[in-house]
Write a structure and sequence with these properties.
Elements: E1 7-12, H1 15-20, E2 23-33, H2 39-58, E3 62-69, E4 77-84, H3 87-94, H4 97-109, E5 110-121, E6 135-146, E7 149-157, E8 167-168, E9 171-172, E10 177-181, H5 188-202, E11 206-209, H6 211-219, H7 228-234, E12 239-241, H8 244-249, E13 254-262, E14 272-280, E15 300-303, H9 309-323, H10 327-330, E16 333-336, H11 340-349, E17 354-358, H12 359-366, H13 369-375, E18 378-388, E19 392-395, H14 400-411, H15 417-425, E20 428-433, H16 440-445
Parallel strand pairs: 10-11, 10-12, 15-16, 15-17
Antiparallel strand pairs: 1-3, 2-4, 2-5, 3-4, 5-6, 6-7, 8-9, 12-19, 13-19, 13-20, 14-17, 14-18
Length: 449
């Protein structure tokens, strides 16, 4: 196999069967390789590939095998398609020693893989009508590796799963319901409590994937090299806690379910938040603490992300509407900090003069006992908003009964001692149902996207 260039290798082992059968069982393997890969691992892979072909030829239920790879300087993707008589052929292949050997070193070669199983109508058999569904997905297996170790493995069923596997529509309890937290790290513990409670009430296993932390580790200096949609797909998420802007960007793929309500009076018992412009309080004997936005003209602005609604878009809109200037004209310099928490620390250290922080994150950070004293050094110069609170969303495929169950659990949790305590601990009073209309203001105000 050529290791450097694009490569396509179609192999047909049983031509007459391929021509005569009206339908097939197909396994599609999609893998994304590590960069770089150890030379010894490469040699093992190519040796296994040769051995693999010899075994495939001997299995009478395997009709054809097609492989394709992209060069490493591209993105190192590797695909193969195995065409079989039926699902039994897959079971026989999985018992093969070469398959087990390949699986044992896959974590050293791949960063992540997806394995799709589906039934496919033959496009060349005359008995197959043009109106027939060309293929019917059965299930997808997700495997992701970190530090060359299996991080998680999940499976989603599209057709009714095998006997004994309880299924929520297209989500099977063969693997946990998977939630993702795209919000700041300080919100992760709250989201973890929420998902654990949902799992207990539903009687199914759940997982919470800390997307921000994973993305930070993978891309290090280039945070969010993938879109929210990419991460939802890659990590097989069923539900996710995301910001309102990302919901609007991906609303065709997502259903919005509920949003939390902060307990403080400034929120008016509504699912909203504010964007607080913060500065560091200066000692009395030094230059005075800025009191207004005008005082910040010509200063250094700390921004978590250019895509952040609270950290960038809201202040950009306000400066344009009230001062008729852009961020670059109002501030002397804009420094990227990568997160609200980092913005706060850079304000406290004096690396930047000011930053705009999601009020929910600011209050949750300040409530941490070991940080409360330090956060008293912060002063809110101005508050922007309110804006719609980040919601809990789900993928479109999630069964309506499951969506209703999750919604009911969350909007009634404040009536239970355990639930109300959980909410109060993080500064919330309740969850309320929300719909797409609640987030329309973001679409009209997000002029800098």
């Amino acid at each position: 196999m050529d290791q450097g260039d694009y490569y396509l290798r179609p192999l047909v082992f049983q031509l007459q069967r391929l021509l005569s059968l009206s339908s097939f069982f197909v396994v599609g393997f999609f893998g994304w390789r590590w960069h770089p890969i150890d030379e010894n691992v490469l040699h093992q892979i190519w040796a296994l590939d040769t051995k693999l072909l010899e075994h495939l030829k001997k299995l009478d239920r395997i009709i054809a095998y097609v492989s394709f790879k992209k060069p490493m300087e591209s993105d190192g993707e590797f695909f193969n398609i195995v065409i079989l008589d039926d699902a039994l052929g897959k079971d026989l292949w999985m018992q093969n020693g070469t398959h087990h050997c390949a699986m044992s070193i896959s974590n050293k070669f791949y960063e992540r893989v997806r394995i799709h199983n589906f039934n496919m109508k033959s496009p060349i058999n005359p008995s197959v009508k043009a109106v027939d569904v060309p293929f019917e997905p059965r299930c997808t297996t997700y495997v992701s590796f970190q530090h060359k170790q299996t991080w998680w493995r999940g499976q989603r069923w599209y057709l009714p799963p095998p006997s004994g596997v309880v299924s929520w529509g297209l989500v099977s309890s063969r693997r946990p319901l998977r939630f993702g937290s795209f919000m700041g790290h300080v919100a992760y513990s709250f989201h973890k409590q929420i998902t654990h409670m949902i799992g207990e009430r539903l009687g199914v296993p759940v997982e919470l994937v800390p997307i921000n932390d994973i993305v930070d580790q993978r891309f290090q200096r280039v945070k969010f090299a993938q879109t929210v949609r990419d991460n939802i797909e890659e990590y097989g998420l069923d539900f996710a806690f995301i910001c309102g802007v990302e919901f609007h960007k991906n609303h065709s793929d997502l259903n919005v379910i509920v949003a939390p309500v902060r307990a403080e009076g400034r929120y008016g018992d509504r699912p909203v938040y504010f964007a607080d412009v913060i500065v560091r309080k200066e000692p009395e004997d030094q230059q005075g603490t800025p009191k207004t936005l005008e005082d910040l003209r010509g200063s250094v602005f700390g921004c978590n992300e250019m895509t952040s609604y609270s950290g960038y878009h809201m202040i950009a809109n306000h400066l344009q509407d009230n001062f008729n200037v852009s961020i670059s004209d109002f501030f002397m310099e804009t420094r990227m900090t990568t997160s609200h928490a980092s913005s706060i620390q850079q304000v406290l250290s004096g690396m930047v003069t000011c930053a705009v922080i999601d009020s929910t994150i600011l209050e949750m950070e300040a409530s941490i006992p070991e940080r409360s004293e330090e956060y008293r050094k912060l002063h809110v110069v101005h508050s922007l908003g309110p804006a719609p609170m980040p919601p809990l969303v789900c993928r479109r495929y999630v069964h309506p009964d499951l969506i209703s169950s999750v919604r009911d659990i969350l909007v009634t949790m404040h009536d239970l001692p355990e639930g109300s305590g959980m909410l109060a601990e993080s500064g919330f009073s309740k969850f309320v149902p929300v719909d797409e209309k609640h987030y329309e203001s973001i679409l009209t105000e997000n002029r800098w996207r």
